[in-house]
Amino acid sequence: MYDKKIATRDGFGEMIVELGRKNKSICVVDVDIGKSCKTTIFAKELPAQHINVGIAEQCGAGVAAGMATCGKIPFVVTYAVFGSLRMCEMIRQEICYPNLNVKIACSHGGVTPANDGASHQSIEDMGVLRTIPNMTVVMPADYVAAKKLVEKSAEMYGPCYLRFTRDALSVIYDENATFEIGKANLLKDGKDVAIIANGDTVIIGLKAAEELAKIGINARVVDMHTIKPLDVDIVNNCINEIGKIITIEDHNILNGLGSAVSEVVAERGKGMVKRVGIKDQFGESAPYERLLAMNGITVEDLVEIATQMNK
After folding, report:
1. Between the CA atoms of 252, 86, 76 and 227, what dihedral angle is there, to the nearest 10 degrees?
2. What's the pTM?
3. Residues annotated catalytic, as ranges
4. pLDDT tens-digit profile of 210-219?
5. Is 82 part of any domain?
6. Which of 50, 56, 199, 291 is deepest in the core (most CB within 10 A)?
């Protein structure tokens, strides 16, 4: 099970071509790394809908904003660390403040850049961008989810940040799975502990649930692919029906998924949350799995936390 692996950036690359063929308003604004971000086929097949601004992320954001005012639906495509942090002021002032229909599609999210080191590992991006009004923040869990959520982002109006992985991830959804931005997917029901994950950590949550079942702990697993707007209803269900929640993310535990869920729990005034993620520290050049292990983002860590919460 889960043997098939494909990077979510590949799902984006395939879907953006499909969307561009159907809708001539769909455009790609590349920041000179189309090969890594999987937009080379789009550029070749749909040159009239493609522009490469060169290594100039802020310029890409401004160009996309201008295109959006003319009725286009531009996707600015780059690495997550550049598309969030280097472009942040332009995203705020030129895209979100006027609420323009610009999508920011970024590969190499979290520590998936691995050996590229801390400079390329984007661990702050979703947290930074979820604080900006009008911004939607999405991270698909696999190739299928990536394709469908890219399509949904093109259908919705407004700024949207889409975060993809460099490394291949296990395919967990079948082609008939349905997605709605702002509505989490319940992957496994359970009564003893709720595991809320997104992106590349969803598969870790599912595998942890399998191990927990062997020791008599029934875990609920939720794919919170959209952290803004957060699916508050499903969090409230976890609070009311279970009361014990573990969040897991390939992102700083500050201001990401764990913080978003904790905000809901705090406002309810009941329930317990344990956050698993990057421990407010920079990464380093190391294999992806090693970087996760350094931050306690493993099946074994989840099993231990869930076990302690159910004592």
Report:
1. 20
2. 0.96
3. 57
4. 999 999 999 9
5. yes
6. 199
